Amino acid sequence: MTSAAPHLPETVLIVDDDPEIRQLLRQYLEVAGMRPLLAADTGEARATLQQHPVDVVLLDVMLPNESGLDFLRWLREHTRVPVIMVTALGSTIDRVVGLEVGADDYVSKPFEPGELVARIRAVLRWAPARAAGAAAMVASTIHPVAFRFGAWRLDTASRELRHADGVLVPLSTSEYRLLTVFLMHPRTVLSRERLVELAHRRALQPTDRSMDIQIHRLRQRLRDASDGQLFRTVRNIGYALDADVETMSADA
User: Fold this and answer.
1) DSSP characters for 35-98?
2) Domain boundary among 137, 158, 180
């Protein structure tokens, strides 16, 4: 009878310049059965990534020499490792920028140990689904898909958003994900919680208003007024894309 392979602890790279926070996080994760690795700056973090396989990175925004957001950009260019940003309480702009650059989730200081561990485990659960989704996107380039809605067309292979007058509108990663969610659920009211779950694969925090900011930015991209024709705000519930959506080959 063959015995099952032993479960290996999840390896979490903690990148924070505060030694007390690093040690505190190490204790939290060790108690949770995880394997923490510590880095005081992005230089140490890069060296650690070259020496050890890492399952998730816990990354502080405020770091010496190189910011956490700049390091996140480097991570997204070179790796697919999930990243949870650590932000100051109430720092909405850091959260929004982090999500646009490619963070998988964020946690605010001060944080509860249980919440932190739950977020890490949630990101690890979502990681295989993201990898499968990336593979599916690569496969879809053989038969690329485009969405046509109103005067707009979005090509999912090139991620190009183009108006009928020929103007090409650039989209951040966060904006592209959010718009795609709306296009796959036309004329459907989606709560903020559901939008965050579908677009960013994370849970919505009670005080989190980043989704409202992202909707505002997307409206600006699509030349939509605050009470726009494309995006409808349903008070105390969420948002809806009020447009018929046509799906076609990107070659059409």
Assistant:
1) EEEEESSHHHHHHHHHHS--SEEEEES--SSS-HHHHHHHHHHH----EEEEEETT-HHHHHHH
2) 137
